[in-house]
Amino acid sequence: MIKKEEVYRIGLFNKPHGIHGEVMFTFTDDVFDRVDDDACDYLVCLVDGIFVPFFIEEYRFRSDTTALMKLEGVDTAEQARMFTNVEVYFPVKYAPADTDGGHLSWDFFVGFGMDDVRHGFLGRVSFVDTATANVLFVVEREDGEELLVPAHEEFIRGIDKDGRSLTVELPEGLLALDEIEDENDED
User: Fold this and answer.
1) Class level of CATH domain 4-94
2) CATH superfamily ID and name for 107-186
């Protein structure tokens, strides 16, 4: 059984395309194209709350963020329709740790523990908020509170892919600002 911490979200299947089972795929990370086919030739879909692997038969890019994808065993528009609005994930173990010119999507870090070089363990990344131009890690602290941390490469000091931890060096006062906001919320 595939567990949530073993995968990270890379996109969403949209609607069927044509009559031969292709599905429009909107992605935030093209990792499926950057890894060797021998390493990983499947994607994982969240179907009825269960992570299910589907092998890629072929795909072609339509733009920088969309592709037409054909999955094995999906040969008709009717079968492809079952994938409409299905979330697509990629196995963490096959994601390249460091790629030439490529990058990991911020969603890769969901489930990672976050340590600050000065403050120690901050919590676990539970969500990545991409609703605004400033992408934020939503970090769930041990006390149940949420901490919002800017997702900026300049703050990241280390990534332990195997240990699923992220070391950051946040600017002085950033955590204090978050605590002030929490106090104001209580008033």
Assistant:
1) mainly beta
2) PRC-barrel domain (2.30.30.240)
